[in-house]
Amino acid sequence: MIIAVDGPSASGKGTVAKIISEYFQINYLDTGLLYRALAFKTIKNYKTASLKNALKVVNGLTEDDLSDPQLRLQKFGEIASKLAKEKQIRDALLAFQRNFPNQSNGAVLDGRDIGSIVFPEAQIKLFVTAKLSVRALRRQKDMKRMGQNISFKDVEASLKARDHRDINRAIAPLVCLTDATVVDTSNIPFGSLKKEIIEIVEKKYKSLSLGSSE
Ligand code: DC
């Protein structure tokens, strides 16, 4: 079973994917971390995150590269979003993502193009969204926890710029698919969100099981 969770930055898709991973006991891959790790490693090794430098790094990424808390810093999200426009980068990261569920009997992955490109055949697809102001407040709090004090205005502007880039890029843009269930996390407490997500997945799973036994 593959579950695809797509949505913009700070929409709550990570929270949704973690709920699914923990409740249904399946592995979770945050694919944004792959792009962030690429940004981080390229800067670390070559100082500038040009396409040429990123291409020297991209094939060597492993799961060990995804655990550094620094990857969450705003600057790596921005560089990741710029590198993510490039076809050669996206193609190079496809195999890593597609091999991930082979480690066990399925997985939940979150990102921008999981349901459209990485796993168009995913049995369950969710599109997680939230109001820009709510997302900006969340991101600002996350950054504060990491010791970065960024004004609400700057966080909002950065999210807007990334949304624009992620939605309008020529390859694998962020889209809300017609076969995805939309989950708006703007005004929902964690407990209710958890209940809603479990219900959606169980209902979908039941309908798939019924369909396959016919
Ligand atoms: O989810 P995130 O904010 O950590 O992702 C960082 C950037 O990586 C995002 O702005 C675009 C890119 N990305 C992508 O293009 N495709 C994915 N599946 C995941 C992330």
Provide the fold topology.
Elements: E1 2-6, H1 13-24, E2 27-30, H2 31-46, H3 51-57, H4 74-83, H5 87-99, E3 107-111, H6 114-118, E4 124-129, H7 132-145, H8 152-168, E5 181-184, H9 190-213
Parallel strand pairs: 1-3, 1-4, 2-3, 4-5
The structure holds 2'-deoxycytidine-5'-monophosphate.
The site of 2'-deoxycytidine-5'-monophosphate (DC) has 15 residues, from helix 2, helix 4 and helix 8.
Ions, cofactors and other bound molecules: 2'-deoxycytidine-5'-monophosphate
Number of strands: 5
Please bin the fraction of helical residues: 55-70%
What is the first-to-last residue Cα distance? 19 Å
Mean residue pLDDT: 95
Largest sheet: 5 strands, parallel
Kindly estimate the percentage of residues that lie in beta strands according to DSSP: 5-15%
| Spatial strand arrangement across the major sheet | 2-3-1-4-5
Given as residue ranges, the uncertain stretches (5+ residues, pLDDT < 50) are none
Q: What is the overall shape?
A: globular
Structural class assignment? alpha/beta
Task: Give, in order, the helices and strands.
Answer: EHEHHHHEHEHHEH
For the CA atoms, what is the radius of gyration?
17 Å
The number of helical elements comes to: 9
